[in-house]
Write a structure and sequence with these properties.
The complex is a heterodimer of chains A (about 350) and B (about 250).
Chain A: H1 5-12, H2 20-29, H3 46-51, H4 58-72, H5 78-88, H6 93-105, H7 107-113, H8 117-130, H9 134-147, H10 152-165, H11 168-181, H12 186-198, H13 202-215, H14 220-232, H15 236-249, H16 254-267, H17 270-287, H18 292-305, H19 308-311, H20 320-337, H21 342-357
Helix pairs in contact in A: 4-5, 6-8, 8-9, 8-10, 9-10, 10-11, 11-12, 12-13, 13-14, 14-15, 15-16, 16-17, 16-18, 17-18, 18-20, 18-21, 20-21
Chain B: H1 9-37, H2 45-63, H3 69-80, H4 97-104, H5 106-134, E1 138-141, H6 151-154, E2 167-169, H7 170-180, H8 182-189, H9 197-209, H10 217-230, H11 240-253
Antiparallel strand pairs in B: 1-2
The chains are: A mainly alpha (about 350), B mainly alpha (about 250).
GO cellular component, one term (chain A): EMC complex
Protein name (chain A): ER membrane protein complex subunit 2
InterPro entries (chain A): EMC2-like, TPR-like_helical_dom_sf, TPR_EMC2
Chain lengths: ~350, ~250
């Protein structure tokens, strides 16, 4: 599932170094991704930085790509690039770590940053943790710590550093200390949940998320995360509940409709299949027929609904037209984008059509 | 005749200019002092939860038609049931949350006192200082005539009815500076400076009118509950298949 990544990365971003190279690559290949920023700037309200995922406009995306290229080629503009990343809440750790560190090592560049210096330190520290450059990250954190000795945000960074190192107990201690001081800090709660997840302790993660959602029940990124974890634990009904919440909050997001439909399809049973088909249709409608998964889903639902097990109870006449339309749109897309696979796809679709019509 | 009154340039150099300068400096100082004393408000979990419940209920109300009927009924019950629903407020609770909060939370009173102190102390001191050193000066003349009614505003501290109203006494100059420098402060200190007392007072008054600090959580919950009770569930999805068909047909034609 494509959508869940954003939260994921924000959640498990700095826990382990291994998978982070990948996360960087995926971030490049995706044009739009919601990303819950784990770090809030001090002046910002929660609404701005937390609850609503940041969407990247096409223009800003282009600007970002341009700046990234320029930075990679050593053409300067690092400061602007870092600022744009912060603004768009993107996290391109490899680039940020290399060039940000170079920037911070130059005293002249440092003094030019002015009051942005500390935000850059934070950004680079997180990026360093992402690429497992723990020593460099520690240096950044120390610099921040001397400047802001009692800061919540710096404390958080320290916790993340222990996390990145894998010293779960120390990280846990840091987080719970900070939480007693400020129990309404959502980021801290999320880090603890992410920690449980990183250790593979899914039940603890679920417990933590449920407890978190009891209080912060309008945090829809957390609902998304919970849906993911439930799905991975094969608890589809619970996951479906989470998706219902997501649909309620964002009724026009095709991906949530799609996710809900997929869960219903997986649960099975004629009623669920029928509902699943409706949600697949909604996803098609909302995505303008561009979403392949939704198209395939409609076909699959048609095939599954007509299987002998469930056929006895099909009272209403299921419209075959939607299925054939979806199939022809799929074929059309394949002919345009991947002609070599047309044969394979058409045979699959034919088989499904036979099943549906049988 | 009023025109005969000639103001000494010494008055300009030793009264008018220093007074304005001191007012500006004090304003800047106050800004930084109050910035230093400010503590970030720490919202308590219960208030956060109530806000979030309201938000979620609002989403349910708005998006009710996008989830199956069963899911909607389930949620409605969860929010609205009379025993332990999320939106249900037990009677007698939350009668005056503001006062209760004030009593239970000394930091709130502390905060208010800090704000007030940073506002009142410098004002009293500067007023005393102005009164002591500069009382009785005619400090400036405004270049246009004014009616008698402005006398109390511009000639505070001078009890002479024969002086033309366009002359400004030093104490009045102090007041003019006190209230008139806000624009300058927002220019040099940024928009959110501590000087904007009047604005803040307006805000707190507004909040008071709306009930307690910000809003009365019990009332907001009750309103959401009533709203949710009124929602008729009408599942929007059955028609989606036809719409999807038309979308796909359109796609195939182009």
């Amino acid at each position: 599932m494509r959508l869940c990544r954003g939260f994921h990365e924000a959640f498990s971003g700095s826990t382990r170094s291994g998978h982070l190279g990948r996360s960087h690559k995926t971030s490049q290949s995706r044009s739009v991704r919601p990303l819950l920023q784990v770090f809030e700037l001090p002046g910002r309200t929660r609404e701005e930085s937390g609850a609503v995922p940041a969407m990247v406009g096409a223009n800003e995306e282009r600007e970002l790509e341009r700046l990234e290229k320029q930075v990679e080629e050593g053409g300067g503009g690092v400061v602007e690039y870092l600022a744009l990343l912060r603004k768009l809440k993107q996290r391109r750790s490899t680039v940020v770590a290399t060039h940000g560190l170079q920037l911070l090592n130059k005293p002249s560049a440092r003094s030019k940053l002015g009051s942005d210096l500390w935000t850059v330190y934070e950004q680079v520290a997180i990026a360093c943790m992402d690429v497992h450059a723990l020593d460099a990250a520690k240096k950044c954190i120390n610099a921040l710590d001397t400047k802001f000795p009692d800061s919540m945000r710096v404390g958080r960074l320290e916790g993340m550093w222990y996390e990145a190192k894998g010293s779960w107990h120390k990280a846990e201690k840091v987080y719970s200390n900070l939480l007693t001081e400020n129990p309404s800090d959502t980021v801290l709660h999320k880090r603890r949940i992410a920690m449980a997840k990183a250790q593979g302790n899914m039940t603890a993660a679920v417990e933590g998320l449920n407890k978190y959602l009891e209080t912060f029940m309008a945090d829809y990124d957390a609902w998304r995360e919970l849906a993911d974890i439930y799905t991975s634990l094969l608890m589809y009904k619970q996951a479906a509940f989470c998706f219902e919440e997501l649909i309620l909050a964002h009724p026009t997001n095709a991906l949530y409709h799609l996710g809900y439909a997929e869960l219903l399809y997986t649960i099975g049973g004629i009623d669920n299949l029928r509902t699943a088909r409706k949600y697949y249709s909604a996803a098609i409608e909302l995505s303008g027929g561009q979403n392949m998964r939704a198209l395939y889903g409609v076909c699959l639902c048609g095939a599954a609904m007509n299987q002998p097990k469930s056929r006895g109870r099909t009272e209403e006449k299921e419209s075959q037209e939607l299925i054939s339309l979806a199939a022809s749109v799929i074929m059309k897309e394949y002919k345009e984008k991947a002609p070599s696979k047309v044969g394979l796809v058409s045979s699959i679709l034919d088989k499904q059509k036979q099943l549906a019509a049988a | 005749m009023a025109n005969d009154l000639v103001l000494d340039t010494q008055i300009r150099d030793w009264v008018l200019a220093p007074l304005s300068l001191v007012m500006v400096l004090i304003g800047v100082l106050r800004h930084f002092v109050s910035k230093m004393m400010r503590t970030t408000p720490n919202p308590d979990l219960k208030a956060v939860k109530e806000g979030q419940v309201v938000l979620r209920a609002r989403f349910l109300k708005a998006g009710a038609n996008y989830i199956p009927a069963r899911s909607f009924q389930m949620r409605k019950l969860y929010y609205n049931n009379e025993e332990n629903g999320l939106l249900h407020v037990p009677k007698g609770q939350g009668a005056n949350p503001m006062q209760a909060q004030m009593l239970s939370d000394p930091t709130m009173a502390m905060d208010m006192m800090k704000k007030n102190l940073s506002m009142i102390i410098p004002q009293t001191l500067t007023f005393a200082w102005v009164n002591f050193f500069f009382s009785g000066f005619v400090a400036a003349k405004i270049p246009f005539p004014l009616t008698q009614r402005f006398r109390s505003m511009l000639q505070n501290g001078i009890d002479l009815s024969s002086v033309d109203v366009s002359y400004v006494s030093s104490r009045s100059w102090y007041f003019l500076n006190l209230f008139g420098l806000r624009g300058l402060f927002s220019l040099i200190l940024g928009e959110e400076n501590a000087i904007d007392d009047t604005q803040r007072m307006m805000q707190t008054q507004m909040a008071m009118q709306m009930g307690g600090f910000g809003s009365d959580p019990a009332k907001a919950l009750g309103a959401e509950k009533d709203g949710l009770d009124l929602v008729q569930h009408d599942w929007a999805l059955p028609k989606s298949e036809q719409r999807a068909e038309s979308v796909l047909r359109h796609l195939l034609q182009t």
